[in-house]
């Protein structure tokens, strides 16, 4: 449980200034409210719900659930019987009731410095309504699934909220398209990340063909031309769409500052049977659209995340609980105030972007920076340049980005003032104390508390986290639970451990934002999260609790890897490798990496008669990239004529991890069937990344 008093030694505090205006001002204040949230969740969440618009009130219990598989089907329901619309709450309510129409919703900052746009709440509402009307005119209805494959542009937020407005379920794609989705697809031509051109249209076309091959025909694709004018005139060439379908808004875009450096643009083949142009469709659409009133437990979105058995899982979140939870966590964890400028550097395609770029900030009427580029382009000061340019007060990024920038020392940071910064956040993986100290001392100049937020795609929002003015911080600890969240640490036999201890991190009861099911496979949902320890939600992470009651995440304890804050399953990478005809067997392990946290070290056993060479290596790399995504690109591939196995034929990953790191102390290997295999692998280790 939470201690009555916060520790006084070896902890860091936020500035006194921050405490003056904060929502939660002291540890005692946090503890008191936390107890209320646990003892009386209906009242606690009921207070949060008062800020929102409900077309009809809920009828049953505020939060109804079963978390115990031995007692029947797992379910969580929040505010059953109520109806609302999340886009109405994020936009109309802020524009009309809260009079925030002229407030900036997003400062869009492009990949190229100087490429920028500003969008107010009123404009965002209009654009969402227009696009919602476009979707309707294309036949999209409540409950339909819409896939979105777009870069970090305002239109991506518009597309998400337009779906939400008409009750369609969005699924943002960051990797090959899951074939279980029926689609209209919204996508963009491409974008630049640093100097690199990413041709989204071609990638999407390939994926669409695969969907067709599998019997899921995609009827419509709406394409946003982001790399604009040149694309219009040059690359489309003879395949360009008929004039009425080309993109007419370029003139207007120029006036708003979206001027592109002259650069190669993607070659985008155009199929008039399927492809529709975003700009042309929007131009004729009305900017008013009555929201579709949705039930609390209607699906809001599906987001695919890695599964330890290999196949990605479609995590499903629903309307009301997710809205309340992302709104409350955003407000309290970043201590959001009306004049803040907030910046989360994550991609919207990840849950961090869903919850803390789109839903949480807009629910609060916040002003955010939406950044298309990279922390290192055009140089490694870019982040701090943007902080000063927009006077960013609350800044949220990942440990991998901090470690990357740390390599360049403090000088690129100190080129900019960063005076506006008040709170710094991190997410995605454990932050090592060195990186924490650098972030705190150099970036925040010892003035800004660091909120190390632990959560998952599945949890919808932060579950373990400091509150900036209330929680004394310890570098590397995600500290204490957020309101409504009850963590426990279990041992291997499923017993709850008390006091200082280490084991499996689980949660004992739901909070409004927890996922509701794996899309199309409720059984997999129960098996993955609830079967190992009946009565608990199992995170898959290891965790330690210290003498002061602080929680420290120790990393995944299943077959998952965390590469730059992105979860990957070893099984998923292995099956991508084995799909290549030259590969008979593959085993993938993580190898510590100074910036990415973990890198992918792959052992491959080739099919009979195939010889290993660089061409094959490159093909394998490409294969994994294409099947899973760039984040899964193998860092090392080692030719393994044989893999270390137990007598019963199980691959000994523990031994492979040692080989990958060149650690000769193998521990107990008495179960190993043939120990000469290990020596051979040590001799042929890969010393440099492929
Ligand atoms: C896994 C969830 C949450 C959005 C981004 C990743 C790891 C996440 C922390 C943190 C230690 C963390 C865990 C978790 N993780 N945040 N602050 N400290 N570990 O979402 O892809 O669903 O990954 O990321 O291992 O289970 P995700």
TrEMBL record:
It comes from Lates calcarifer. This is Propionate--CoA ligase. NCBIfam families: PRK00174.1 (NF001208). Its EC number is 6.2.1.1, 6.2.1.17. The gene is ACSS2. Pfam families: ACAS_N (PF16177), AMP-binding (PF00501), AMP-binding_C (PF13193). GO terms for biological process: acetyl-CoA biosynthetic process; lipid metabolic process. PANTHER family: ACETYL-COENZYME A SYNTHETASE (PTHR24095), ACETYL-COENZYME A SYNTHETASE, CYTOPLASMIC (PTHR24095:SF126). It catalyses: propanoate + ATP + CoA = propanoyl-CoA + AMP + diphosphate; acetate + ATP + CoA = acetyl-CoA + AMP + diphosphate. Residues 572-650 form the AMP-binding enzyme C-terminal domain. Keywords: ATP-binding, Ligase, Lipid metabolism, Nucleotide-binding.
